[in-house]
Design brief:
alpha+beta; binds asparagine; 10 helices; globular; 8-stranded mixed sheet
Length: 307
């Protein structure tokens, strides 16, 4: 986007309304979690370890004093380690994911974004599914109450979804709609819904494999309706050194790449569950926007456009 065009859009009432709503999303979600007993921790921006991610992103490192630091792709490992200190933690965590340029077409990828990332000690998937639904309901009510004018500028009418949200097993969705099932189902639905039970080979090694159903993970995605697509992912976690080590190897990676996380696992990390919800995607859905670049003042898109 040219500077002229950007200058005009920054001064437009539309961006003012969107960013006010996003500020309310951050305020209400943080307050909700604090009321639920969560402690907000500082995000990690660079580290020796980060989420390897399942899909291919272009990974970059910074070299400093002979050490190599990765840019955070998600705080998953730090969340697990933080549970040594508090039982429920969250962070507004900036992530850098250098996505392939084709992801520009999805309208929901930024290469720099923020996820509200949380983790709960000893929790099960059903606990964080309920928490995710309550969080979403609270945020929608807060925006409805506090941002009436802004919603009317955007011509967006918000409706509280009904709970519990539908849960669709991955296998069932895949058999009916094929590999693009998440998008197809997103267009077909009028309310948010969960996809649960991803197969082991489709996700990262840290999502816990169901001991009762080998090959099936105790994880989930939340998907927005009306074609807005994926909102969050999360699940129960692997936390035993032996299991994590063999899961890492089965993805073709080496446990050595994940020191010092592996050392923490050796000493003992608690079982947990959690998820991360993208703030810009939530803003896009709540505001009813066509592209993710409209959700933030300084968007960076796949392909590199942005300031
Ligand atoms: N934050 C996600 C989780 O908690 C992981 C991710 O962003 N890939 O599972």
């Amino acid at each position: 986007m040219q500077t002229d065009e950007r200058y005009k859009s920054l001064k437009s009432g539309k961006l003012k309304a969107i960013t006010k709503i996003q500020s309310e999303i951050r305020r209400s979600s943080g307050d909700f979690l604090r009321r639920e007993g969560f402690i907000e921790i500082s995000p990690v921006i660079i580290s020796q370890i980060t989420d390897p991610l399942f899909h291919l992103v272009d990974k970059r490192e910074i070299e400093y004093q002979g050490k190599r630091f990765k840019l955070t792709q998600s705080m998953i490992f730090h969340k697990q380690i933080a549970l040594l200190v508090h039982e429920k933690i969250f962070a507004f965590s900036p992530n850098i994911r250098l996505e392939p340029i084709e992801f520009l077409d999805t309208k929901r990828h930024l290469i720099e974004f923020t996820q509200l990332d949380l983790e709960v000690k000893e929790a099960k998937r059903r606990d964080v599914i309920s928490l995710g639904e309550e969080l979403l309901m609270d945020v929608i009510s807060s925006v409805k109450n506090s941002c009436k004018e802004e919603l009317s500028v955007l011509d967006r009418k918000l409706k509280l979804p009904s709970r519990p949200f539908e849960q669709i097993p991955y296998q069932k969705a895949y058999e009916k709609y094929g590999p693009d099932f998440e998008n197809i189902l997103s267009y077909l639905h009028k309310e948010p819904f969960w996809i649960v039970d991803f197969p082991k080979e489709m996700r990262e090694f840290y999502d816990r494999e169901d001991p009762a159903r080998p090959g099936v993970l105790l994880d989930m995605d939340l998907v927005y309706p009306e074609g807005y697509g994926e909102a969050l992912s999360g699940g129960e976690r692997e936390h035993e050194h032996k299991r994590v080590s063999s899961r890492i190897k089965s993805t073709g990676l080496s446990p050595e790449n994940f020191q010092p996380y592996m050392e923490f696992l050796e000493k003992g990390l608690p079982p947990s569950a959690g998820f991360g919800i993208g703030i810009e995607r939530l803003t896009r859905w709540i505001c009813g926007l066509s592209g993710i670049e409209e959700t933030t003042l300084f968007p960076k898109l796949p392909g590199g456009e942005g300031i």
